[in-house]
Inverse folding.
């Protein structure tokens, strides 16, 4: 070694084994820059509980993916223009008829592109199933109390996803510019015009002039494929992130608490099952699209403002809004030279109130109970009688309005008077939810009594025993410990008591209206007439020790 020359430093070596192939080398390279190994280790082994009702949310996700995939394909061939052309396509009955480029391109997709009609049908059926799955998933979350802390924000995300899905579906089936969808757009225009003061300005802004104008289809197209799906995608990602962060709810059972999750890891078990379920959902939607035709625009023909299609019905999820319009009397009020169309304006105001009634319930329940704890155990619906009864009443209101939206079809198919059906729906709007609420609440209380009887006396075995004095009794077998835990582990909130009318100094307390209202609602929700007290340990020990037990 020459004088004055420093030795070179030893090379830095990694303790990780050399990559086995180029793919592993690429992953190692990405891990050195993104930290994907640590991210995967913390998330891919995350535990998810297993229950059939949790698949409802997966159906929502998978149908949304199907909608995006088929929608991208349809976008390549659909022409969102209201410019007039003469149809010269394959469908002979419409040849030579003037129509918009939007309708003509939809006809070309349906009859001239290989597989085009099937893709259209899959797209439409996936949208119908998507909204239906969100609706049922929302009610599953509602009935099990999975909306409680810390999932209130996720509940609102889901509500907004359902709302946007409904309106994006409405815009989607309006794009072909056929006679049926044009009738729906005309319906929308009437609702906009019914808004006092600003209605006419909104109508001119939306349609770019007098109805139907020449810009409504391009505008709906932009909102349908870009704006709303983008918002929904962001909400969906946020929804899933919160599910990961808060962990999934689970039903009560041995070993399950608010601080743990019992189930399967995300990788590989849950991902393998989810991947298979995706293809099952895709196959089921494709089978529905191949068997049952939806939105046959060639039968309706292109839209003309001077015509209205018969049997005009929106997709089912917008049917309750149609029902509100049809059952509302055609009242009008004249003020200062202007006419207020109450027959349209009142249903327009009730429409969001019907949805807000169910979406705001979680916050009402939290206010009444004053519960600030985190809840990761899902309720059995019977253990929350008032909540379950309220949800059932809301569903009955939705269904009665859906029947009102199809009063013409009910009249023609069952040979009934359309006026009689309309009047029946008007009465049912106020009566049916109340009746359903009362019946469902009593049903839940009956099931609670049955559970209590099982805990104290065991299950019926069907074995009859004759006692020495001649009495015949049925042998009851005690429930296993796991079943006993499941039937008795739920919480039973107690009613909120108002403080004494005077304090310790004899000064009258000032109790506000909100405090009195909260106490009254609390008694209605959790009083003696709204829940059956769980059996105590002493009651169970006394019964099972031989007194009164066979």
């Amino acid at each position: 070694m020459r004088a004055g020359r420093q030795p070179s430093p030893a090379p830095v070596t990694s303790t990780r084994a050399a990559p086995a192939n180029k793919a592993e080398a690429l992953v190692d390279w990405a891990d050195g820059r993104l930290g994907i190994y640590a991210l995967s280790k913390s998330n891919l082994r995350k535990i998810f509980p297993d229950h059939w009702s949790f698949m409802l949310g997966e159906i929502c996700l998978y149908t949304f993916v199907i909608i995006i995939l088929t929608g991208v394909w349809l976008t390549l061939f659909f022409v969102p223009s209201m410019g007039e052309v003469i149809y010269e396509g394959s469908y002979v009955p419409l040849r030579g008829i003037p129509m918009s480029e939007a309708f003509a391109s939809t006809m070309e997709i349906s009859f001239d592109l290989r597989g085009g009609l099937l893709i259209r049908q899959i797209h439409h059926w996936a949208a119908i199933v998507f909204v239906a799955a969100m609706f049922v998933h929302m009610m599953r979350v509602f009935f099990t109390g999975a909306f409680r802390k810390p999932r209130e924000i996720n509940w609102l995300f889901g509500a907004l996803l359902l709302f946007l899905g409904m309106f994006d579906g409405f815009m989607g089936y309006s794009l072909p510019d056929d006679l049926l969808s044009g009738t729906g757009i005309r319906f929308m225009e009437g609702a906009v015009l019914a808004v006092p003061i600003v209605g006419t300005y909104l109508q001119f802004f939306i349609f770019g002039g007098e109805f139907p104008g020449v810009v409504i289809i391009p505008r709906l197209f932009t909102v349908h494929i870009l704006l709303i799906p983008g918002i929904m995608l962001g909400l969906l990602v946020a929804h899933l992130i919160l599910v990961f962060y808060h962990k999934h709810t689970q039903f009560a059972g041995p070993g399950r608490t608010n601080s743990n999750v019992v189930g399967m890891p995300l990788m590989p078990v849950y991902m393998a099952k989810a991947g298979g379920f995706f293809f099952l959902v895709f196959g089921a939607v494709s089978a529905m699209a191949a068997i049952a035709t939806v939105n046959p625009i060639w039968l309706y023909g292109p839209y003309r403002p001077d015509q209205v299609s018969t049997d005009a019905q929106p997709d089912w999820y917008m049917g309750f809004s149609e029902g509100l319009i049809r059952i509302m009397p055609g009242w009008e009020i004249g003020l200062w030279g202007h006419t207020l169309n109450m027959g349209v304006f009142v249903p327009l105001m009730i429409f969001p109130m019907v949805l807000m009634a169910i979406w705001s319930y979680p916050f009402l329940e939290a206010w009444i109970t004053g519960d600030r704890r985190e809840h990761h155990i899902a309720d059995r619906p019977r253990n929350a009688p008032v909540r379950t009864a309220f949800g059932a009443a809301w569903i009955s209101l939705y269904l009665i309005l859906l029947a009102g939206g199809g009063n013409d079809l009910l009249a023609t198919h069952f040979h009934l008077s359309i006026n009689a059906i309309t009047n029946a729906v008007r009465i049912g709007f106020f009566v049916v939810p109340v009746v359903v609420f009362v019946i469902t609440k009593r049903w839940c209380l009956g099931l609670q009594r049955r559970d209590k009887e099982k805990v104290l006396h065991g299950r019926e075995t069907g074995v009859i025993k004759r006692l020495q004095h001649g009495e015949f009794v049925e042998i009851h077998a005690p429930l296993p410990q796991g079943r006993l835990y499941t039937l008795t582990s739920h919480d039973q909130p107690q009613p909120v008591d108002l403080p004494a009318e005077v304090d310790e100094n004899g000064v009258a307390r000032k109790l506000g209206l909100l405090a009195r209202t909260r106490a009254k609602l609390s008694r209605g929700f959790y009083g003696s007439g709204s829940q059956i007290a769980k059996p105590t340990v002493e009651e169970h020990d006394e019964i099972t020790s031989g007194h009164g037990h066979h």
In short: The chain has a mean pLDDT of 87. The longest strand covers residues 459-466. Residues 418-457 form the longest helix (40 residues).
